[in-house]
Amino acid sequence: MTRLAYVVMILAAAIGVAGTACSSSDSATKTTTAASSSAAAASPVDSATLPTLVPAPAGTQTTKGPDSIADNGIHLRFQVSGAPADVMNAYKAALGTKGWAVTTVMTSGGGGGGGATYTGTNGAAYGVFDGGGYQDKTWVDVCAWPTKPADPNCVRGDG
User: Fold this and answer.
1) Cα dihedral across residues 91, 93, 97, 98: positive or negative
2) 5-9, 12-16, 21-25, 58-62: which is most confident
């Protein structure tokens, strides 16, 4: 190799390291991988099996759904006895045991309230898991689809 080729390689490596060191990241965004299959390579999930992929949060007092939503998806709503942060942390772990690879979109807390929103994949299935509440009451909305829809909007509440 020529001296110029070495200089170019060293410069490229230095730029790569500097770019990685200087890149900003959201410390609240974390990914937990529980499933080894890739959603891109996986076949769509039969929408009739979606409810079996969604665990009920520990401490669930009432469950509404599954209700049908756009793109062959389902919507479930759980009322849970427990502090929002504790419920959502435990629910994230429960999703992992059901094979979901979960990404934290956001978390909030303070003053006795809070919550979290997660997205995840389980094979080709795609889910949005949104929960929050106050003191010892937490509501968790779950939407799951056979594959990721163009607009994965999970409406809170009974809708």
Assistant:
1) positive
2) 58-62
